[in-house]
Amino acid sequence: MDEQLMALQLCLNEVGGFRMDSFSERLKYQKMVYLMQLFGIDLGYRFEWYLRGPYCTELTADGFEIDKHRERMEEYVKDYELSNEAREKLARFRDMISRPPADGLSQESWLELLASVHYLAQIAYVKNPEDREYDRVSARLRGKKPWYKKEQIAQAWSLLKTYGLLKEGP
User: Fold this and answer.
1) Which of 10, 39, 95, 111 is the most buried (most CB within 10 A)?
2) Considering the chain, what percentage of its residues have pLDDT values greater than 70?
3) How far apart are CA 139 and CA 136, in angstroms?
């Protein structure tokens, strides 16, 4: 069995599992893994900017692979367990995503916003270091995703900063 798939399955089991049945579930899955890796759980997935924020094609393929063989995967990983260090990191991640979403957002939209803010502030290529500052990230995000309100972006920035995932802030 592929070790990356096993690690992914174990980590997702630890934070409540995942589904691939609908677009919103797949969106949630993508953003959860993106954010999970920020807590030091490097599963080897690398993300690029796409329409709904950070996206990894390989992660989608792996999610469908696990989903296709769900019973066999569950049976296989039951003989393995995460390290205490991994469990602690995942507990911090779970704590962050269990916080209520910004006003008016569904859980998947909130995860999309959190991942998008982080990606634009820390990962995306920028010409000037000032482009990583809150005001510029907020403006860029509003240009790409105008349905997010300034207050929601500020809440996402604040939460990411609380967990040490951002360096700058309002």
Assistant:
1) 111
2) 98
3) 5
| DSSP bridge partners of 50 | 53
Question: pLDDT per residue over 95-151, tens digit each?
Answer: 999 999 988 899 999 999 999 999 999 998 888 888 889 999 999 999 999 999 999
State the amino acid at position 4 in one-letter form.
Q
Residue 105, token pair as written in the block:
């957002």
Q: Which two tokens stand for residue 34?
A: 């993106």
The answer to whether 117 and 154 have CB atoms below 8 angstroms apart is no
Decide if 11 contacts 86 (C-beta within 8 A). yes
CA dist 169 and 28 (Å) reads 25
Q: Residue 44: helix, strand or coil by DSSP?
A: coil
Give backbone dihedrals phi and psi of 54, rounded to 5 degrees, phi first. Answer: -60, 135
